[in-house]
Design goal:
CATH topology of the largest domain: Rossmann fold
CATH class of the largest domain: Alpha Beta
Distance between the termini: 57 Å
Structural class: alpha/beta
Low-confidence stretches: 271-284, 289-336, 367-373
Number of strands: 20
CATH superfamily of the largest domain: P-loop containing nucleotide triphosphate hydrolases
Number of domains: 3
Largest sheet: 6 strands, mixed
C-alpha cells in the first residue's frame, strides 16, 4: 500500500467516512482513469452502501420529492414520495459534469450536505426526509471555463486532479486495511487521541498560511487525519484494540494535500529545514553534540581517555530524579507535530507542476457581481421552474401538478372508483417559466475632433474583447457613434464577433460633437432592450466638449443643456450610465453629466481596450 498515491487514498477515506471528509470533486476529463477510480471506490465501499447517479436536467420534484400522484389517487389522501437525494440516504450521490449543475439544483443539495435532511415544502406537502449523502462530483471544465457553483464546492472536502494515466492498484490490501480500520473506528475507544489539540493547532496555522477563511475545510481535514492515521496503524499492525486513534504527522500532511492545498489562495515559501524524507522532523542531536570521527573511535581506550578528560568541561549537576522515573536516554522518541512543516510536506506530495485551483484563473458561479446567470419570467418560453395557481388562459397549464392538487379531494367530491378525476378552478396550476436575463452594453463614442481615431480604436478593441466573452455571459454589444451633426448606430445589438468586426471597418472621425444625439440614440436601444427583458447599460466615451444640440445647430451652451436633459431621462429609466472622460486633465462637465444620469464618471486619459473592458465588467450594474 502506497499512501502517497493520493487518488487511492481519497477513495479509501470516502469508503471509511464519506460525509466526514465532505465527499470529493474529481477534476479531469472522462476516460479509463476515471472509470478505474470509480470501480476502485465501489470495491472499497460496503456492499449495502447506496450509490446513485444524479440525472442531468433533474427537476425539483425528482431531486427532492413531492406528491405521489398514483398513490394519492388510490388512497384518497396526499402521499409524499422522496426524491433522488432521499433514496441515496446513507450513501454516495454521483454527480457527473459538476460544472453544469444549475444553481437551483445546487441550492437544493445544500440542505442535505449541511444537515443530512431534506425539508420538503412544495405543492401542499410538508415533510422532513432523511438525506445524509456525500457528493462524488466530476468536474470536466477547463481552467478558462466557468467552474462548479461556489457554494457547492465550499461543502465538498476533497478536491483533486486525477492524472490521465492513473491506474488503480491491487485492491486486496486496500480492502483489508479499510475493513479493519472501519471496525476500529466504530469502537468507542477509537475516537480520541492525546495529540488532537496539537493537530487542530497545526491545521489552524496551516489554513491561515494558505489564506483559507472557511472552517469547513479544517473539520474535514481533521477527520481525514484520523482516518489516515487509522489506515496507517492497521497497515503497520502496531495498534491494539484499546489504543486511541493515532495522529502521526504524515497523516496530517496527507490530509492537507487532499483538502487544504487545493483551496489555497497563496502558497508560502518552503521552509529551509524541510526534511528530505516525509516522515516527520529529523530526530534531535544528542546533548554531547555529533559523534566524533571514526579514526578517533578506533584508537585504544588508554590513548583516548586522558585527552578526553583533559578537554572535557566540568559536568553540570543533574537535577534529582526519583527512583521510579526512567532514564531519559532510555525513553522512546516522541515525534512532535510541527505546524510550520505541514504545508511544505503536503506540497511535496503533489506533482512538481501542480498549482492551486485559485491560481488558475477559474471562474466560480456565485462569485461575481454581474448579471450573467440571472433569469426573468416568461409566460410561454424558457425553462420550467415551478408551478403556482393561476389562469390557464395566460400561461401554460401544468397537468401533473393540477392532478396532484385535485387528488386528495376526490373522496369529498364524490368520485367513483375508476371514474374521471373531478377538477375545480382552485386545483389548476400553471407553469412558471424563466429564461436567461442577458445584458446589453451600449457604447456611445465621441468620434469628433483630433482624438476620434484613437478613441474609436480603443472601443473597437473593447467591443471585440466583450464579444469574445459573450457566449458565457450572454452579453450583447452595440456601438453608437456621434460626430459632425448626427449620430448613428454603427453596430446594432449583436453577440456575433464576426459581424461586429465587419461593421467596425472603415470608421470615420472628425467634425462637431452632437453628444445629445448620441445619448438619444443609445436611449432608444436601451428601451428596446428592456422590452426584450435585457439588463441594459450605457457607457459614454468623450472628452466632454459638446457643441451641437439636438436640432443639429451649433452652440456650446444649448448642446450641453440638451445632453444633460437626455442624461436625466436615462437616469429616470433606471439604465446604468458610466462616463469615461478621455480628456488629458479631466472635465467637470462630464461629472455633472454622470450625476444627472445617476451614474459615475471616471477619468481615463490613457484608456486602452482592456481597461475599458475591465471597467465594464467591474461595475455592479443594477
Amino acid at each position: 500500500m502506497d499512501f502517497r498515491d493520493l487518488p487511492s487514498l481519497a477513495a479509501a477515506l470516502l469508503a471509511l467516512d464519506a460525509r466526514g471528509v465532505g465527499g470529493i470533486c474529481l477534476r479531469g476529463p472522462s476516460g479509463p482513469a476515471r472509470d478505474g477510480w470509480l470501480e476502485f471506490l465501489r470495491s472499497l465501499l460496503p456492499p449495502e452502501t447506496p450509490m446513485r447517479k444524479l440525472p442531468m436536467g433533474v427537476t425539483a420534484d425528482r431531486l427532492l420529492g413531492g406528491p405521489d400522484l398514483a398513490a394519492t389517487l388510490a388512497q384518497g389522501r396526499r402521499v409524499v414520495r422522496g426524491g433522488v437525494v432521499h433514496e441515496t440516504h446513507g450513501g454516495i450521490l454521483l454527480v457527473p459534469s459538476l460544472e453544469r449543475v444549475t444553481l437551483e439544483v445546487a441550492s437544493a443539495l445544500l440542505g442535505a450536505l449541511d444537515h443530512g435532511q431534506v425539508h420538503l415544502e412544495r405543492e401542499g406537502c410538508s415533510a422532513i426526509l432523511p438525506a445524509a449523502v456525500a457528493l462524488v462530483g466530476m468536474d470536466e471544465s477547463r481552467d478558462d471555463e466557468e467552474g462548479p457553483p461556489r457554494a457547492l464546492l465550499e461543502r465538498i472536502g476533497i478536491q483533486m486532479d486525477l492524472p490521465a494515466r492513473w491506474t488503480a492498484p491491487e485492491s486486496d490490501d486496500w480492502i483489508s486495511a479499510v475493513s479493519r480500520a472501519r471496525t476500529l473506528l466504530l469502537a468507542p475507544s477509537g475516537q480520541s487521541s492525546p495529540d488532537a489539540e496539537g493537530v487542530r493547532t497545526a491545521l489552524a496555522r496551516s489554513s491561515l498560511e494558505l489564506g483559507i477563511s472557511s472552517l469547513r475545510p479544517l473539520l474535514h481535514t481533521f477527520r481525514a487525519t484520523q482516518l489516515v492515521g487509522a489506515l496507517m496503524a492497521e497497515a503497520a499492525g502496531d495498534r491494539n484494540a484499546g489504543d486511541p486513534l493515532p495522529l502521526p504527522p504524515e497523516a496530517l500532511s496527507l490530509a492537507g494535500a487532499l483538502i487544504l492545498l487545493p483551496r489555497a489562495i497563496r502558497i508560502p515559501a518552503d521552509n529551509a529545514d524541510l526534511p528530505e524524507e516525509l516522515e516527520g522532523p529529523p530526530p534531535p542531536e544528542p546533548e554531547g553534540g555529533p559523534p566524533e570521527p571514526e579514526e578517533e573511535l578506533d584508537a585504544s581506550p588508554k590513548d583516548v581517555e586522558p585527552a578526553a578528560e583533559s578537554q572535557k568541561p566540568p559536568p553540570e549537576a543533574d537535577p534529582p530524579r526519583g527512583q521510579d522515573e526512567p532514564d531519559p536516554s532510555c525513553r522512546e522518541e516522541v515525534v512532535e507535530i510541527r505546524p510550520d512543516q505541514v504545508v511544505p510536506v503536503a506540497r511535496a506530495l503533489l506533482p512538481a507542476d501542480w498549482q492551486p485551483w485559485g491560481a488558475r484563473g477559474r471562474t466560480l458561479r456565485g462569485q461575481g457581481g454581474g448579471r450573467a446567470g440571472d433569469e426573468t419570467e416568461d409566460p410561454f418560453r424558457g425553462r420550467r421552474k415551478g408551478v403556482r395557481p393561476g389562469d390557464p388562459k395566460r400561461r401554460r397549464i401544468d397537468l401533473g401538478a393540477t392532478l396532484r392538487a385535485a387528488a386528495p379531494w376526490q373522496g369529498i367530491r364524490g368520485r367513483e372508483p375508476g371514474g374521471p378525476v373531478r377538477i375545480e378552478a382552485g386545483d389548476i396550476r400553471i407553469q412558471i417559466r424563466v429564461r436567461p436575463l442577458g445584458t446589453r452594453t451600449i457604447f456611445v463614442v465621441d468620434a469628433s475632433g483630433s482624438q476620434a481615431l484613437r478613441r474609436l480604436g480603443e472601443v473597437k478593441g473593447a467591443v471585440e474583447l466583450l464579444l469574445a466573452e459573450s457566449y458565457r455571459s450572454r452579453e450583447e454589444v452595440a456601438l453608437v457613434v456621434f460626430r459632425d451633426r448626427s449620430a448613428r448606430t454603427l453596430v446594432p445589438p449583436t453577440r456575433s464577433l464576426t459581424r461586429a468586426k465587419r461593421l467596425l471597418r472603415g470608421m470615420a472621425g472628425g467634425g462637431g460633437t452632437p453628444m445629445a444625439l448620441g445619448l438619444e440614440e443609445a436611449l432608444g436601444l436601451a428601451r428596446s432592450g428592456q422590452r426584450d427583458g435585457k439588463a441594459c447599460r450605457i457607457l459614454l466615451l468623450s472628452d466632454g466638449r459638446p457643441n451641437v444640440d439636438r436640432a443639429g445647430r451649433g452652440g456650446r451652451r444649448a448642446a450641453m443643456a440638451d445632453a444633460l436633459a437626455i442624461a436625466g431621462e436615462v437616469g429616470r429609466m433606471g439604465v446604468p450610465l458610466v462616463v469615461l472622460d478621455t480628456s488629458p486633465r479631466g472635465t467637470d462637465y462630464l461629472e455633472e453629466l454622470a450625476g444627472a444620469g445617476r451614474g459615475r464618471a471616471y477619468h481615463l486619459p490613457r484608456a486602452d481596450a482592456r481597461r475599458i473592458r475591465d471597467r465594464v465588467n467591474g461595475e455592479a450594474w443594477a
